[in-house]
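2024-03-11 09:14:02 INFO worker-7 job=invfold-0412 stage=load source=structure_tokens
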């Protein structure tokens, strides 16, 4: 029979419990299941956070400043190049070479947990077609030390040889696509992490690594530290008609990534100088 509460008739189930009570129990169970799922690794924010290993040069720049790029306004002598990662898969290097691309950087590693599965095709393919090539590492300062990541990079394609065709390794340090923009580090701690990576890379290879970073990120996450400009070439991303303001310590850029939507494949870049200057950087 129905139960009367405050003048309201509540229907009963066959067991004698109010139907509204059974509904409340079901809702509570559903909420508990949802709460449990959200605590699983990678569940929270899964729709917005890319999978580990998928980061590439300019990924944070695109998210922060937008995608695309305008035709470079400078008429200064420059040499065209590209950068690629697993997103490009097997690259048609012949087409890029025919279009005037003379050098390339290839993603080798990320953190101490990821190796580009297309690295051999991309790194060797660019070399075999005649390009000067180099490797880059996507830094994740929140997952391992700078020293450990430099070792992982060198051990998995980021080394260097004086053959006139191999560029020094590049450190891609930019907005964190997986979380906090500065990887949870203070400005001083970030500078220390970068220094540890660079010192270890030089100890392993004899070369000063190229630094890829945007001025706004560098200002935000290192306090616009000026201590690397005298030793490490700068690779600046800016999808506009000029490279714009450079981070502190650098009087000029070595490479400018001017678009994230290349006409054939990958991000397109201009080396600040004629082809012989690219060779000079390769030779050290």
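2024-03-11 09:14:09 INFO worker-7 stage=emit residues=284
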């Amino acid at each position: 029979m129905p139960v009367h509460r405050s003048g309201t008739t509540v229907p009963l189930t066959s067991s004698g419990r109010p139907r509204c009570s059974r509904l409340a129990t079901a809702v509570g169970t559903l909420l508990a299941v949802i709460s449990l799922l959200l605590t699983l690794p990678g569940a929270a924010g899964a729709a917005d956070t890319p999978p580990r290993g998928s980061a590439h040069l300019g990924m944070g720049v695109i998210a922060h400043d937008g995608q695309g790029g305008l035709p470079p306004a400078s008429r200064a002598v420059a040499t065209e190049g590209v950068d690629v990662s697993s997103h490009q898969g097997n690259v048609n290097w012949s087409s890029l070479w025919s279009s005037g691309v003379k050098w390339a950087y290839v993603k080798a590693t990320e953190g101490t947990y990821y190796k580009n599965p297309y690295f051999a095709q991309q790194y060797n393919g660019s070399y075999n077609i005649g390009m000067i090539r180099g490797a880059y590492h996507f830094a994740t300062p929140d997952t391992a030390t700078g020293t450990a990541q430099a070792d992982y990079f060198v051990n998995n394609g980021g080394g260097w040889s004086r053959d006139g065709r191999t560029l020094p390794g590049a450190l891609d340090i930019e907005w964190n696509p997986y979380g906090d923009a500065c990887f949870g580090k203070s400005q001083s701690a970030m500078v220390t992490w970068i220094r540890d990576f660079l010192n270890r890379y030089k100890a392993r290879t004899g070369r000063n690594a190229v630094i890829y970073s945007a001025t706004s990120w560098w200002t935000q996450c290192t306090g616009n530290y000026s201590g690397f400009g005298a030793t490490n070439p700068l690779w600046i991303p800016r999808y506009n008609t000029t490279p714009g303001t450079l981070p502190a310590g650098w009087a000029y850029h070595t490479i400018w990534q001017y678009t994230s939507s290349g006409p054939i494949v990958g991000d397109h870049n201009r080396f600040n100088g004629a082809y012989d200057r690219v060779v000079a950087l390769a030779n050290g």
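2024-03-11 09:14:09 INFO worker-7 stage=report msg="The longest strand covers residues 103-110."
2024-03-11 09:14:10 INFO worker-7 job finished
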